[in-house]
Description:
Blueprint: E1 6-9, E2 45-52, H1 59-77, E3 87-94, H2 99-112, E4 117-120, H3 124-136, E5 141-143, E6 161-162, H4 168-183, E7 186-192, H5 195-210, E8 214-221, H6 229-237, E9 242-246, H7 249-261, E10 268-270, H8 275-281, H9 283-286, E11 292-297, H10 306-319, H11 325-344, H12 349-356, E12 360-363, E13 366-369, E14 380-390, E15 395-405
Parallel strand pairs: 2-3, 2-4, 4-5, 5-6, 7-8, 7-9, 9-10, 10-11
Antiparallel strand pairs: 1-3, 11-14, 12-13, 14-15
Amino acid sequence: xxxxxxxxxxxxxxxxxxxxxxxxxxxxxxxxxxxxxxxxxxxxxxxxxxxxxxxxxxxxxxxxxxxxxxxxxxxxxxxxxxxxxxxxxxxxxxxxxxxxxxxxxxxxxxxxxxxxxxxxxxxxxxxxxxxxxxxxxxxxxxxxxxxxxxxxxxxxxxxxxxxxxxxxxxxxxxxxxxxxxxxxxxxxxxxxxxxxxxxxxxxxxxxxxxxxxxxxxxxxxxxxxxxxxxxxxxxxxxxxxxxxxxxxxxxxxxxxxxxxxxxxxxxxxxxxxxxxxxxxxxxxxxxxxxxxxxxxxxxxxxxxxxxxxxxxxxxxxxxxxxxxxxxxxxxxxxxxxxxxxxxxxxxxxxxxxxxxxxxxxxxxxxxxxxxxxxxxxxxxxxxxxxxxxxxxxxxxxxxxxxxxxxxxxxxxxxxxxxxx
Length: 420
């Protein structure tokens, strides 16, 4: 096996006794892949190259993405209906949340590990270079958490790339609309000073304007920033009705901690506060906020559907802890690739388009149809109030207070830049 990657083969129908009651876990397999990409027929093994950040700014997400895809592949490999004669296998590369490293890892997985399909890339800048590489080599690529609108509906869309997860404008427009309707017309937007953060700001501003509100002030902080005292000073001195903060990773926990210590308790919507980040903050901090919402919560284990209940149980059995947004997004992409390519019956980018365009994947969060014009997913969007922290599992708890169709917040095909 090549250094730096990990083959994870999930055997069809058989769960080895040595894996125990926790369900099927990852298995180290040989280094032979399914055919090295470049299109063609699907053989006995279909190898997906997962380009996930295991270090860098988004290193917290990569391991969860892997766990979600493992569960999807275990379910599909155990099915008599989807790929009964093909084993789905996962090979992983660490992008380090860096475009140059991500491109290098994509080349390595394609040239040395014989992958058939790419998936992954939390960072949009990494996804952009991988998308171009995949398209140039006739390899299908499904993004996992990369959210820059341009990767599908904008100038960087490519025929080989798909994104089941919502982009920044789908989520941000809803946030601006909903928070303005709920809390008032005067808003403050706090965001990170890079592509995702500025795209979030622009989308939320659009949603606020559509709802008749006003952005009173905005503040941008560097990615990885941990000090928010001066920003909190600005927020406190501004006459606003609510705050939208789009801070990711450890920055979100630092902001909430410092805001609580300052006694800042105004209605807050957020774009980047998964349940594990809330758990890291702890109940003493979270309980100080009376109106803290995930706007939207792209996924939370409290979604009240039979499909999600089954997903939570299966994930906990396999991995020993509840799923979260990163893991469920990996799961959704795994189901999309497995079910979609099974139906398409080919790895050729052009031939598979007739199936993957318009394909509907049933994920834990609900039905999700991939648009034909830009390969953008349209899953349900949920508004969730943060209610506390489950200290036993170290995760935030939520109450689902609203649900929306993301198609309502997606530009029509006639109004986008993408030309596939």
